[in-house]
Amino acid sequence: MAEKTFGETIAQARKALRLSQKELAARVLKEDGTSITPQYLNDIEHDRRSPTTDHMVAALARALNQSAEYFFVLAGKMQPADVRKAARAGPERTNEAMLAFRRALSGTGKS
């Protein structure tokens, strides 16, 4: 099975909620409180653009009732700012967390 892109995932979630691009765009608010444009959403869904901020990834997830964490990974942002900040605790703790993350994804319990 081919991996879905961020844009494909957004489009699929939008369609599952039976929302038009215009309706979803009106629900996704930028940092300044204004909505994104339907054209910007169309560009995201066709992987011509990607959200540039953590806020935008989280706003898309909220509007689609989806996991922000999953969207961060798909958007190539591995983790949101709060996780990046916590990772600054040092390489040992960060390495332990990443190993646990990999074990959880693989389902094997091994690193």
Care to describe what's here?
With 111 residues, the protein is mainly alpha-helical. The chain has 2 domains: 1-78, 434 Repressor (Amino-terminal Domain) (Orthogonal Bundle), CATH 1.10.260.40; 80-111, no CATH class. Helix content is 59%, strand content 0%. Helix 2 packs across helix 3 (38-45) and helix 4 (54-63) packs across helix 5 (68-74). The two termini are 24 Å apart.
Contiguous runs where pLDDT drops below 50 for at least 5 residues: none
Q: Tell me the CATH architecture of the largest domain.
A: Orthogonal Bundle
Count all strands and give the number: 0
- What is the string of SSEs from the N terminus onward? HHHHHHH
Fraction in helix: 55-70%
Helix segment tally: 7
Rg (C-alpha, Å):
16 Å
Helix/strand/pairing category: mainly alpha
The level 1 CATH classification of the largest domain is Mainly Alpha
What is the total number of structural domains? 2
Biggest beta-sheet profile: none
Mean pLDDT comes to 87
Tell me the span between the first and last alpha carbons. Answer: 24 Å
Give the DSSP E fraction (strand runs of 2 or more residues).
under 5%
Shape: globular
Query: Can you say what the CATH homologous superfamily of the largest domain is?
Result: lambda repressor-like DNA-binding domains
According to CATH, the fold-level topology of the largest domain is 434 Repressor (Amino-terminal Domain)
